[in-house]
Amino acid sequence: MELLDPLILARWQFGLTTLYHYLFVPLTLGMALTVAIFQTIWHRTGSVTWLHLTRLFGKIFLINFAMGVVTGIVQEFQFGMNWSSYSRFVGDIFGAPLAFEGLMAFFFEATFIGLWIFGWDKLPRRIHLLTIWATSLGTIMSAYFILAANAFMQNPVGYEYNPETGRAELVDFFAMLTNPVALAAFPHTIFAAFMFAAAVIIAVAAFHLRRGQHTEAMRPALRYGAWFMILSFAGTALTGDQLGLVMVDTQPMKMAAAEALWHSACGADASFSIFSIGTPDGTEEIWSLRVPYLLSFLSTHSLDGCVEGLNDLQAEYTQMFGGGVDYMPEIWVTYWSFRWMMGFGAIATGIAVAGLWVTRKNATRPVADWMWRVAIWSAPLPLLGSLVGWVFTEMGRQPWIVFSLMLTEDGVSPSVPGWSVLISLVSFTAVYATLAVVEFRLILKAAQRGPDPLPGPDDPHPNDLPIDQTPSTVY
């Protein structure tokens, strides 16, 4: 492998930039909804506790959102810089949902974020509440358009190939928006994002409860986060099952790679390995812990279903698309990322269940210090699960940049030298590392500070304040 190979460097740069940008996406999606829920509870009950939680987690949401905007803009520039051949081939198609995301969804959420930030003492309470719900809706709309663009790369629909221009052209925008992959990936991604937001809420609450601080606010926040985690995990698992069925139908090679299934199997032979040890080249299995029938059930919802193997699919793709190409992805990456994705989420959910149990009303023992520490340090687990899930999704599509239409090696910019990509890769990595430290410190500072002290018995109750009284005066 050449050290300055433009293809390898461009793939590394896009992969690192995308994963870095995705550090902020789940928290934005989940925290926008959480802040809307907290503010709604405050609006309905008048309890200052929920006002403080709204302002605290709203601050975390805004810090995260600002950083996500910066990294998202840089990410899209790479389509014209490093992947110009890809952009020329499917630019009309891929650019359509991204244009809707930028011109409609992003500006929609950005407008209402501004109204929410500056409207505390300017808007009626109900209108101000609607602005944060509109913001949450905007973040979800934005996610769908981006997932629709990505779904075309996994399962190209709604296009026609123009032999005169040598380009794929969009002919049915509705078909693209209703791509089965997009419809299945969207709820799965949203629920996974909610899991990370829940983990952050649990960690912030556990940090303060461990120190005996702000208990009136942090106890309900902790239990909200735990329930939010459990419900989101259930949604992630159910939607992941549906996404798996779509994956088998549209990209059977990816499912075979997820299990490292070299030969087609049916029924009991189509088992799922919880853990496996193989030869260095990955072609032979030395030992594994397996669940019979499980892969068959996950792939077909039938215990007698058949799953195509890697070798059979390689022969099939060679006949369909031509020889001389290895149509298999990196098996060790897909195999382990698929399991880490599920494992991280399951561990985080188990911690949430334990948190509900030890903080129940009739608990007879105080929560041990090590339990609080586990709750705090478990915050990144759902995010790690989402990140390796995206590694599985994108690496499992290889060697295609657009499945069945364009190989990844054909999408890279032909006139960009490797040294140029390397310079931008190092530069962006250094800048992003700095921004990551800034982001983490800002959020950590806001989280450690926590909500301001609750008002005393002689302070006015929110229900007694005039309708145009600003929440900031309660602070």
Query: What share of the residues lie within helices?
Result: 55-70%
Q: Summarize the helix and strand pattern as letters.
A: HHHHHEEHHHHEEEHEHHHHEEHH
Largest sheet: 2 strands, antiparallel
Apparent shape: globular
Number of strands: 8
Parts with pLDDT < 50 across at least 5 consecutive residues: 456-475
Count up the domains: 1
Strand order of the largest sheet: 1-2
Contiguous helical run count: 16
pLDDT average, as an integer? 82
Helix/sheet category: mainly alpha
Q: Mind telling me the C-alpha Rg? A: 24 Å
Strand content: 5-15%
Measured between the Cα atoms of the first and last residue, the distance is: 60 Å
Task: Label this structure with key terms.
disordered C terminus; globular; 475 residues; 16 helices; 8 strands; 68% helix; two-stranded antiparallel sheet
Structure in words:
A hairpin with a 6-residue loop joins strand 4 (272-278) and strand 5. It is globular, with a radius of gyration of 24 Å. It is mainly alpha-helical and 475 residues long. The protein has 16 helices and eight strands. It has helices spanning 6-22, 25-45, 48-81, 84-118, 125-154, 173-177, 180-210, 215-250, 252-259, 294-300, 310-321, 331-358, 369-377, 381-395, 408-411, 418-449, and strands at residues 159-162, 167-170, 265-266, 272-278, 285-291, 306-307, 400-402, 406-407. Helix content is 68%, strand content 7%. It has one domain. Helix 2 (25-45) runs antiparallel to helix 3 and helix 7 (180-210) runs antiparallel to helix 8. Residues 456-475 have low confidence and may be disordered. Strands 1-2 form a two-stranded antiparallel sheet. A two-stranded antiparallel ribbon has the order 3-6. It has a two-stranded antiparallel ribbon with strand order 4-5. The longest helix is centred in the middle third of the chain and has 36 residues, at 215-250.
